[in-house]
Predict the 3D structure of the following.
Amino acid sequence: MDLDVRKYKFIKELLSVESEVVMEKLERILDQENDQTHELSPEHKVELDRRLQAYQDKPQDTLNWEEVKKDW
């Protein structure tokens, strides 16, 4: 069963939920999932730090948006 079908079935079930406790549990699960998906991996943090340092060392070595658009 593909993800879209599963989502649709889940939404149908969700609309029939009458229990406040069940809704709170589902909301907590979704909140946890959203919190986890917004965290950067250690590798991404290292790369961002490297890029920030490169910019701070040589801020003149950047391109403006107009220059970038010309090459695309």
The radius of gyration is 22 Å. The chain has a mean pLDDT of 89.
